[in-house]
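Fold Annotation — chain and its backbone
Next Lines — sequence and tokenised fold

***
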Amino acid sequence: MTQASVHTMDLPWTSSNGAALGVSADAGLAISGAASNRLVSGGGALAEFAEFAPGAPLDLSAFDEFRFWVRADRPADGSAARPFVLAFSYDDQNDGPGEEHRWLVAANAKERWEQRRIGIENDRRSAISRFRFTSLSNGPFSYNVDDLLAVRAEMLADAERALVRCLERQVVLPGLEAVGIDQAASANDTLVRLPLDDGFNVGNRVLIRGGSAGDEIHDVVGVQHDAAAGHTTLTFAAADPLKGSLGIGTASVTVLVPSSWRRPRLRNPSMRARRTRRSARPRPSC
């Protein structure tokens, strides 16, 4: 997954009518950074908005999703009893007549942070000049909004990384787990010595535990088995030295199961996803 920060929400957006819709930086409630944007109305804020205009239009054509966090003082799911309170929208300088990018902001629970995800893969987004959160209510409400991101999902790559992390931490080879070192090593060393064990080979990825810097993962670029002396020495690349020191009796080495993921090729590389024309009707956020 690739992402870019559109706005940290540490600084308040600009209100269209401060008397009806107050917008402030709330340092007491934040998902990340120093603060979130707090939007508060005592009533009468229908169609008022909080706005952010970047210094220069943003080209977000490389991204297919917006994500942000919201915390509401009441549930809002679009039902008669729980109508939507906020809409999120943006303008692109190249929009045509009647073109709109607008979504309804759902809140499933009271006073709980929830991340909203908005798909923009079919929307114009190469020169975004303005973002808004617009009030849909004339009644009182209080919302906090934080961490507006542009995201490009990479499903295969994300799945691959998750699988590798899972395998690295949970699957080990029999006989090559928690092998204690037999010679101390210092931070920045590239050699680790173990009792003789011909199960270690070049290309292994190893997990080192018990060092002063905590868990470390390294790739083995050289192995020397010295049967006469009864030692196996692992070598790491010069750019991949130990982060911490290792002591005899505390540090150990585990070989992690290697894994790889090959992305399938399209049968027809010239095929491209078709763009569908967007609707001017506001869409609920996920």
